[in-house]
Amino acid sequence: MLALRRAVWPQREAINQLIRDDSDFVCDSVKTYLRDAYDHCIQIIDVIETYRELVSGLMDVYLSSVANRQNEVMKVLTITATIFIPLTFLAGIYGMNFDDMPELHEWWAYPVVLVLMGLISLGMLYYFRRKGWLGRADAGDKSADAD
């Protein structure tokens, strides 16, 4: 559209110059046709501007859809990272080889830590689903936006 506009715009100026100049090469009967050509040139420029606006609007719609898709991907990545951060913290604490952590010498400590990690993950998944960030929120749950 820009190339077409660049091609037509100088034509309008050239035709206008031919109409306004008093030249021996252009007689009055030809100026009538030049005025008609000038009107057609103006109409073409208007059509080109309309199409440029349409193309610009379509480009905005496309860029918005790409941005929305990217936001959805970023949301999933953020949720995944948010779920694994506390799990990594707990695994890091219990991965240290310290003897003076009292829960390390209990038989129930390992299963309790695994259950705690599972509960944290499930709690976060429930919270994200309730907020509508993961999947769809419950249809009857109107308080999801208020949280």
Q: Please count the helical segments.
A: 3
Give the class-level CATH name.
Mainly Alpha
The SSE string, one letter per element, is: HHH
Query: What CATH architecture would you give?
Result: Up-down Bundle
Taking the alpha carbons of the first and last residues, their distance comes to 48 Å
**What's the overall average pLDDT, rounded?**
83
Main beta sheet strand tally, sense and closure? none
Using the CA coordinates, give the radius of gyration: 35 Å
SS content category: mainly alpha
Measured as a percent range, the helix fraction is over 70%
Fourth-tier CATH superfamily name: Magnesium transport protein CorA, transmembrane region
Strand content: under 5%
Global outline: rod-shaped
Q: Residue ranges: pLDDT <50 for 5 or more in a row?
A: none
Total strands: the figure is 0
The domain count comes to 1
Could you tell me the CATH topology label.
Methane Monooxygenase Hydroxylase, Chain G, domain 1
List the helices and strands and how they pair.
Layout: H1 2-20, H2 28-95, H3 109-131
Helix pairs in contact: 1-2, 2-3
Note down, in words, how this protein is organized.
The chain has 147 residues and is an all-alpha fold. The protein has one domain: Methane Monooxygenase Hydroxylase, Chain G, domain 1, CATH 1.20.58.340. The chain is 75% helix and 0% strand. The protein is built from three helices and no strands. The protein has helices at 2-20, 28-95, 109-131. Helix 2 packs antiparallel against helix 3 (109-131). The longest helix has 68 residues, at 28-95. The chain is rod-shaped, with a radius of gyration of 35 Å. The model has no long low-confidence stretch (mean pLDDT 83).
